[in-house]
Amino acid sequence: MDVETLAKSRYLSLTTFRRDGTPVATPVWLARQGDELVTSSGSLSGKAKRLRNSSRVLVAPCDMRGRVTGEAVEGTARLQDQAETAVTISLIRKRYGLQARLAFWWSGRHAETRPTGSRVGIAIRLSGPAQA
């Protein structure tokens, strides 16, 4: 599966790995930016923490509940800086419209309890089919 095919999916199952190698899959919104898929997460989320330890990821198309609907692909992910994160959030808002605007508004309502810059972008570069 390639970037173009995955980018057409409504949701992406993003699997990150704990230090002990345990996989943790999460459904995320996505957008395409060149040769990469991008998404965002809370900067203090488990997903971001796991990516700080290991850039290895598996991605697959899925439904909104995280049920995988296609082939998983290996990739590497990196956390984006503040400027890149702003672009990623803009791309996601453009793709998901009102749904994204409401979700980002809702998460921003409680911003006083979160550190400044509470979101971080994630850029995913595919490397090939998942290994069994």
Plain-language structure description:
The chain has three helices and seven strands; from the N terminus they run αββββαββαβ. It has 132 residues and is of the alpha+beta class. The chain has a single domain (3-108, 118-129), classed as Roll (Pnp Oxidase, Chain A), CATH 2.30.110.10. Strand 3 and strand 4 (36-42) form a beta hairpin.
Q: What characteristic shape results from the CA principal axes? A: globular
Number of domains: 1
Query: What is the CATH superfamily classification?
Result: Electron Transport, Fmn-binding Protein, Chain A
Oligomer classification: single chain
Straight-line N-to-C gap: 16 Å
Strand order of the largest sheet: 2-1-5-6-7-4-3
Question: What is the radius of gyration computed over CA atoms, rounded to a whole number of angstroms?
Answer: 14 Å
Q: Unreliable segments (pLDDT under 50, ≥5 consecutive)?
A: 111-116
Q: Which percent range fits the helix content? A: 25-40%
Structural class: alpha+beta
Write the layout of secondary structure elements.
Blueprint: H1 3-7, E1 11-17, E2 23-28, E3 31-33, E4 36-42, H2 46-53, E5 56-62, E6 73-79, H3 82-109, E7 119-129
List keywords for this structure.
132 residues, seven-stranded antiparallel sheet, 3 helices, globular, Pnp Oxidase, Chain A, alpha+beta, 36% strand
Short structural description:
By secondary structure, this protein is an alpha+beta fold. The protein has helices spanning 3-7, 46-53, 82-109; strands at residues 11-17, 23-28, 31-33, 36-42, 56-62, 73-79, 119-129.
